[in-house]
From TrEMBL, chain B:
<keyword id="KW-0963">Cytoplasm</keyword>
<keyword id="KW-0539">Nucleus</keyword>
<protein>
    <recommendedName>
        <fullName>CDAN1-interacting nuclease 1</fullName>
    </recommendedName>
</protein>
<dbReference type="Pfam" id="PF14811">
    <property type="entry name" value="TPD"/>
</dbReference>
<dbReference type="InterPro" id="IPR029404">
    <property type="entry name" value="CDIN1"/>
</dbReference>
Length: 1247, 296
């Protein structure tokens, strides 16, 4: 493989030819001719027979070239950048990092810089197993070959025959086989995505606490002269290249600074010491995974607390070679031959911002025997070389850069190295920056809203029984309780989801028995999920690993503070490097843990069903497809809305798909791929029988065909990112990967022809796909497989219809939202700025976050036939806003129409039903028959009237739509257009309303009538008086009456006083009693505050009070002698009570209590017994019609059961007989005083 | 009028182990003349309920019941007119109404074949005339009218207060022209749990957004807030109103309304913000305030 590179370097083969050669290998079927980078002259593409010959001999190696190149560059950079440019790479062992791990940071402590270039031992193993690891064989060999074989290993193994490769043996620049040495092992291409190995500059150690962080290394002062080069002094020291004079006071702030002869000498010594130190560490940690084994880790950290070495274009060592390789490299990037565009950009930026190197080129070259070959000598011999190379590549990638967000552009444009090496590029970047409007905030707006109650689905009518309804209610409460607790506590250290909430969740799940309750709960779950996590990257507030970027939080003037902060912090924070494994940040973590803790099969199944349904629904959502109108400024405003809506749909889809993937692959997910091939084969055989949870392949094909890849692919990627290790090996998913791979290749950014995808759309797809290819569970070699099946992919080119892909639906904000890892570029550049001690302060700016709003309801496009086509044609010629307006109006008016029908027609029918029911009840008596039967009768009478709904609906739409359209369209709209729009709106609204009404009106009427019937029947039930007409207070009433509660309380006090026990001096005054009854009257007349229970109690208390009055039991305050109420006073009070009972109480007064044994017993206890008041009261009651004689008789009859003193019973009989025997005594003859007199006499006589 | 937490605590302090009788309340009134009877009663009731919750179980062991019943029988055997049951309740530090219930239940168990249903007992407590034994009926009645914290009458008073304050609140909302949906309307819409009012347009009070109002007409101490929240209001967090939650994410603001009628009314809303001391804001009437006892 190196031969190719060498021949390139020797200029035997032109770069253009080489790229063509590689590209052909990548697209072997040659459906499309390899496209050329724009920068290349036409002549470069002419085939040179000599070149062709030189290359054709290497044909079998073609597809290994790219992995080789990437590997080579990483290798070279690693040698030159001793602090180990933390280019993330796919970890060989990172497959162990479960995506579902809480908190998200990738696991596994194997992350060692050295692992990127694995030692020979695994490579030889891999080579030995090459046959089984062939590309065609999805069942690749297990063991180290699979485990450690990095990017593209499969292809390499296939092409190179083991150790005999020119690169396998002695030509390796360093001792081969020494673990951790940066060998050019051909079978060990870089693992580009391992954060552990190559954490990004300034990233927080992603590993668990137990892992030794590979980046945080305290500088070891190895000599006295170095004492000043502590990080903090470095940190504050001015940059060398601009203020060299200031260094005089600080003799040697940069340990490897140039031009200081004594430093050079001691440098040698120091390096020697370092080497010893390194070898010591190597011995201590025999595994290649030793975090500090290589790459000069003991050197001062890469977090930027060392002054960067200045880069000088004049000191670049071998320009031509660098230019050539940069060109090849850029061409590979441009042709999408590299798996991850942004990873490469990240790498390049790392080179650009490399702070220093192990060695200066003159003094410290490793002794390499026979270093004559152009590849033998290090490519990057100094920082100058790195920067030069980086700038070269960046020049070629300018187009991509120009689409990055404004902040990144600014940082790039103001990078002094870039300015130094290529003022032209800097100029272009600055221009791009100035023209850019792509402000992207990396800060996430917090969002945690709860699902609101959904009356249409959550009410009782949707449940089979009251029980199910109540259970659901309870579950909902538990769910939200759990959620709240999680929100409050999940950031507390030591809090564990499972321990804290697991049992509660399972208990709740245990209650979900019926399938319907599962679906209810799942609906709630899903809604809540969408609501909480839909916001960018689903972070509700600050979340572990997602701490807000320090840099973006500090304003320009705060750099001093930032510096202080940096002194304290190990590293600025980061969100996980340019290729983070799939995580569930923020609120998503709750839902993931909930699913895990619930561990309910039924729940998962329902959830999958529900998610699949929603995904299908959203994926097929007819997003408006207006022509990108270019003539007026209005289109821009419109596109804002389009984009917002698209973004909402896309983000929702991604979230749903992620969870679908999570649940669907949950049963299969394990930490490691199957250990043996046999096991794997059997698993494969089994799994290939299982139908996919959602037919994503069909959806993908559909999406490609309809040119909606920009919508479909991002969510599909989310879905696949959570797949287990076996999934990519299954035929079904294999074909999906192949499709995606071809899509990736076809998205050449420089191609901008008619019907092509928009640039940012492409960029989004490239970013997500590139990320997917780096997911641990995706086989490392997948990307570099040769000759995929193109046939499935050709569907893409068939249709030319304008789809979403061709519309500028993606903007930078969405791009960065979907792929937050692109922001790492900016962070890298920002940390460079902060590291160079504030000279370029003011780069980092706070950016106001922008948010997207909710997704508006989508009008369905249902019009058919010629009319529909006409309408479509009409819209085609109008600005897109017109169509949206019309559709919006139609949608709203249609919906309002239904509501209107409900409120008018249906309400009328319900009223009719009620009156019919009343008639029925009257004719059939109180019972009225079976309610179900009644309902049937009513419905059969009323439902036919539902037909009116359609006509009324039509009228409504006809009446309301035009006005709305007119109000919403510009005034200047031509009359004909306006009237057409109005007509279409009317039509659409009518269609919508009528479709709903004709389908549902009968059911609706039925439901409402049913409710009315049960209401009426219930009202017929007990306590009719309470439900009967109630008089309100008079109009003039100002509601100043005492409150009922106050009165009950007062009367209760009187009762308590009367019943005792009481202190001797306690009592009530007659005036107080009178006042109390007066107030009671007021309260009863002003009914503002009166509720039936209070009134009932008042009535009862008043009867009790009367009993006490009659029995003369109320202790009266006053002159000491008088402790009883005067007769006259008592009678006055009783009169007041009688009038209250008669006129003011609206509830039945339990007057029979007067004759209850207990109350009469009060009389029995008094000596001498006084009956006159009782008789008076009873007569008045009869007279006023409050009680009938028969009623009194009944009460008295029941008295006989009680046990009384004998004389008392006799008295009772004597007294009441005359009362009961006077059926029609005229009032004048029944003088109360006479009665009292006589009765009293009797009593006295008897006693 | 506003009651501070310190004042509340002072009152509550006086209520430790005090029987819930008229006499106790009278003493309390003498001790705190500036507080209205209703306020004191409300606090008394609340504190006493806490006390009962703590001690409830020990009065319901079968031994305890048996011993109470025997003491009752002995007592009425000696003198049926004496306040046997009331004295017993006060002596063992239990609410008279609840003691009446225990004895009644025990009595019915002895005299009926089937164990009495709850509804029968409740109905007898509401109307002691139904109690077959005249002496017991009198004893029970005495307990009920003398108990100021428990019993059907007290329940009715509380219910009435609740209703009255709902009406007051409604008037207030109408007066302020705030558009709202009341409980009945909400129920008609199918909501299962309903606050008293949901504001159709949220208002900001004291910097907090209020979406709904629930009047509880009992004194809003910390404990009852938590209970209500748990039983009823947390579900509102998700339901009828969109609640904004602060980043610290907890629900803790519970303003209480006091008015000139002297009853405390609590309006709950899920406000956010850093804990404050009692913040007072005049809502609408000179005698009506919002009180936010956040910093318990």
């Amino acid at each position: 493989m190196a031969a190719v590179l060498e021949s390139l370097l020797r200029e035997e083969v032109s770069v253009a030819a080489a790229v063509r050669w590689i590209a052909r290998s990548a697209q072997s079927s040659e459906v499309t001719a390899p496209t050329r980078p724009q920068a290349w002259p036409e002549s470069a593409f002419r085939d040179d027979p000599g070149e062709a010959a030189a290359l054709s001999s290497l044909r079998p190696l073609r597809k290994e070239f790219v992995p080789f190149l990437l590997n080579f560059l990483r290798e070279q950079s690693s040698r030159v950048l001793p602090q180990g440019p933390p280019t993330p790479a796919k970890a060989p062992g990172s497959s162990a990092a479960l995506p579902g791990r809480p908190g998200g940071p990738p696991r596994g402590g194997r992350g060692a810089r050295s692992q990127l270039f694995p030692p020979t031992e695994p490579s030889s193993t891999a080579a030995a197993e090459a046959p089984s690891a062939r590309r065609g064989g999805r069942r690749r060999g297990p063991g180290p070959g699979r485990e450690r074989g990095g990017r593209g290993s499969g292809g390499l193994e296939e092409g190179v025959s083991g150790e005999s490769s020119p690169w396998a043996g002695g030509r390796r620049p360093r001792g081969s086989g020494s673990p951790g040495s940066p060998s050019l092992a051909r079978s060990d291409p870089p693992n580009l995505s391992n954060l552990e190995e190559f954490p990004p500059v300034g990233s927080v150690p992603p590993g668990p606490a137990g892992t030794k962080p590979s980046r945080r290394i305290n500088p070891t002062p190895v000599s006295e002269e170095r004492s000043l080069s502590k990080p903090k002094t470095c940190f504050t020291s001015p940059p060398i290249n601009c203020v060299p004079s200031s260094q005089s006071s600080v003799p040697d702030t940069s340990p490897w600074g140039h031009g200081l002869p004594p430093g050079c000498r001691s440098l040698q010594e120091e390096r020697e010491m370092l080497r010893k130190e390194r070898s010591k560490q190597l011995q201590q940690s025999p595994t290649p995974a030793c975090p500090t084994s290589e790459s000069g880790s003991p050197l001062p950290s890469r977090t930027g607390n060392l002054t960067a070495e200045p880069a000088d274009p004049a000191r670049v060592s071998s320009r031509q070679r660098l230019e050539l390789i940069a060109l090849i490299y850029s061409s590979c990037i441009a042709e999408n031959l590299v798996p991850n565009l942004f990873l490469e950009l990240f790498f390049v930026l790392q080179l650009l911002t490399a702070r220093r190197m192990v060695a200066t080129k003159e003094s410290d070259l490793e002794p390499i025997p026979g270093a004559l070959d152009s590849l033998e000598s290090p490519l990057f011999q100094s920082v100058h070389d790195c920067v030069f190379f980086a700038v070269q590549v960046l020049e070629h990638q300018f187009q991509v850069l120009s689409y990055l967000d404004k902040g990144t552009l600014k940082l790039l444009a103001e990078n002094e190295r870039l300015l130094c090496f290529s003022p032209a590029l800097q100029g272009r970047l600055r221009a791009a920056y100035e023209g850019s409007v792509a402000k992207v905030s990396l800060a996430m707006p917090p969002s945690a809203q709860a699902v609101s109650f959904q009356p249409e689905t959550d009410n009782r009518a949707n449940f089979s029984s009251d029980r199910a309804f109540h259970t659901f209610k309870k579950q909902r409460d538990v769910f939200f309780e759990v959620l709240r607790e999680w929100e409050d506590r999940h950031e507390e250290p030591g809090w564990d989801f499972e321990k804290g909430l697991g049992s509660r969740i399972r208990a709740m799940m245990g209650q979900l028995s019926a399938a319907c309750s599962h679906s209810h709960f799942v609906r709630l779950f899903q809604k809540q999920l969408l609501q909480m996590c839909q916001s960018p990257s689903g972070t509700g507030g600050t979340v572990l690993g997602e701490a807000p970027d320090v840099l973006s939080m500090l304003g320009a003037d705060k750099l001093g503070r930032l510096r202080r902060l940096q002194e304290r912090l190990v590293a600025p924070q980061s969100s996980g490097g340019p290729c983070p494994p799939p995580t569930f940040p923020g609120c998503q973590g709750f839902f993931r843990d909930f699913i895990l803790s619930a561990s309910s099969f039924q729940f998962n199944q329902h959830l999958m069903d529900s998610l699949s349904l929603k995904i299908r629904e959203l994926n097929s959502l007819a997003l408006p497809q207006p022509e990108p109108s270019d003539e007026d400024g209005e289109s821009d405003v419109d596109w804002q809305g389009e984009r917002r809506q698209f973004a909402m749909v896309l983000l929702s889809l991604r979230l749903l798909a992620k969870f679908l993937g999570f649940v669907a692959f949950l049963p299969y997910r394990g930490p490691e791929p199957p250990p043996t091939r046999e096991l794997q084969d059997s698993i494969l055989a089994l799994r290939s029988q299982v139908p996919p949870a959602l037919d994503v392949r069909a959806l993908l094909q559909q999406g490609l065909r309809a040119r909606r890849a920009v919508l479909t692919v991002p969510w599909l990627v989310e879905f696949l990112s959570l797949a287990d290790h076996i999934v990519p090996l299954l035929d079904y998913y294999r074909s999906i990967f192949t499709l995606l791979l071809h899509l990736h290749r076809s998205l050449v950014l420089s191609k901008e022809s008619e019907g092509e995808m928009c640039f940012l759309n492409k960029l989004l797809l490239l970013a997500v796909l590139g990320w997917l290819f780096q997911i641990p569970t995706v086989p490392e070699d997948l990307f570099f497989l040769e000759e995929g099946q193109l046939d499935t992919f050709e569907v893409d080119t068939v249709t030319s219809e304008q789809g979403l892909d061709g519309m500028p639906v993606v903007d930078q904000h969405l791009l960065y939202t979907c792929c937050p890892y692109i922001g790492e570029l900016r962070k890298l550049l920002a940390s460079w700025v902060s590291g160079s001690s504030g000279r370029s302060g003011g780069f980092v700016r706070k950016i106001t976050p922008t948010t997207t709003t909710g997704l508006g309801a989508q009008p369905p496009r249902t019009t058919q036939g010629l009319q529909a086509q006409l309408a479509q044609a009409f819209f085609h010629n109008q600005p897109p806003s017109l169509r949206r307006t019309v559709e919006f109006v139609a949608e709203r008016i249609g919906s309002n129409c239904v509501k209107h029908i409900k409120a008018t027609l249906v309400a009328d029918l319900v009223r009719q039903a009620e009156s019919l029911l009343q008639e029925q009840l009257v004719t059939q008596g109180q019972e009225g028959g079976d309610p179900a039967q009644l309902l049937e009768i009513l419905c059969s009478q009323l439902c036919p009237h539902g037909a009116q709904a359609l006509t009324r609906g039509r009228e409504f739409c006809q009446k309301k739509s035009p006005g709305a359209v007119r109000a919403l369209l510009p005034e200047e709209t031509p009359a004909a257009v306006l009237s057409s729009a109005e007509n279409i709106a009317v039509g659409l609204a009518t269609e919508k309303a009528c479709a709903w009404l004709s389908a549902n009106i009968t059911a609706l009427i039925r439901r409402e009538v049913k409710a009315a019937v049960s209401r009426t029947l219930r009202a017929q039930g007990p306590e009719p008086a309470a439900r009967g007409e109630r008089r309100g207070c008079s109009r003039a009433c100002e509601h100043h009456a005492p409150l009922p509660s106050h009165l009950i309380s007062e009367i209760k006090d009187v009762l308590a006083l009367a019943v005792g026990p009481r202190d001797p001096e306690e009592g009530v005054s007659p005036e107080h009693l009178e006042q109390l009854l007066g107030q009671l009257g007021q309260t009863l007349r002003c009914r503002q505050f009166l509720c039936p229970p209070a009134e009932q109690h008042l009535a009862k208390c008043s009867v009790e009070l009367a009993s006490l009055l009659v029995a003369d039991q109320i202790p009266v305050l006053g002159p000491p002698v008088q402790h009883r109420l005067e007769r006259g006073q008592a009678r006055r009070l009783l009169h007041m009570l009688l009038s209250l009972w008669k006129d003011d109480f609206q509830v039945p007064v339990p007057l029979q209590l007067l004759l209850s044994p207990r109350n009469l017993g009060l009389l029995a206890d008094t000596r001498p017994r006084e009956w006159d008041l009782l008789l008076f009261l009873l007569r008045e009651l009869v007279e006023k019609g409050l009680m009938g004689r028969t009623e009194i008789e009944a009460c008295l009859g029941s008295l006989h059961d009680a046990q009384w003193p004998k004389d008392f019973s006799e008295e009772l009989a004597t007294l009441f007989n005359p009362l009961l025997a006077e059926p029609h005594m005229p009032e004048p003859q029944l003088r109360a005083c006479e009665l009292v007199q006589t009765n009293r006499g009797t009593v006295l006589a008897q006693s | 009028m506003i009651l501070t937490k310190a004042q509340y605590d002072e009152i509550a302090q006086c209520l430790v182990s005090v029987p819930p009788t008229r006499q106790s309340l009278r003493k309390l009134k003498q001790r705190f003349p500036s507080q209205s009877q209703a306020t004191l009663l409300s606090i008394f009731s609340q504190e006493y309920q806490k006390h009962i919750k703590r001690t409830h179980a020990k009065h319901h062991t079968s031994e305890a019941i048996e011993s109470y019943y025997q003491r009752y029988l002995n007592g009425v055997g000696r003198n049926g007119a004496a306040p046997v049951l009331l004295d017993l309740a006060n002596e063992v530090d239990y609410a008279p109404s609840l003691m009446a219930r225990i004895i009644l239940e025990r009595f019915l168990q002895e005299h009926e074949e089937t164990p009495p249903s709850k509804s029968v007992i409740n109905s007898m407590l509401r109307d002691p005339s139904q109690i077959p034994d005249g002496v017991l009926a009198n004893q029970v009645y005495q307990c009920i009218v003398n108990d100021c914290c428990y019993g059907p009458l007290v329940d009715c008073i509380k219910h009435a207060i609740g209703h009255e304050h709902e009406v007051l609140l409604r008037d207030l909302l109408l007066e302020k022209s705030l558009s709202f949906l009341d409980e009945d309307q909400l129920r008609a819409k199918g909501y299962d749990k309903t606050p008293d009012f949901i504001l159709q347009v949220p208002v900001a009070v004291e910097g907090h957004i209020i979406h709904w109002i629930e009047s509880k007409a009992s004194f809003g101490d910390e404990c009852s807030h938590h209970a209500y929240l748990h039983d009823q209001f947390w579900s509102y967090w998700n339901r009828p109103s969109k609640q904004e939650r602060h980043r610290n994410g907890s629900l803790r603001s519970f303003p209480a309304v006091h008015d000139d009628k002297g009853f405390e009314k609590k309006e709950l809303d899920f406000c956010q913000g850093p804990p404050l001391d009692f913040g007072v804001i005049q809502l609408s009437r000179p005698d009506c305030f919002l009180l936010s006892p956040r910093n318990h």
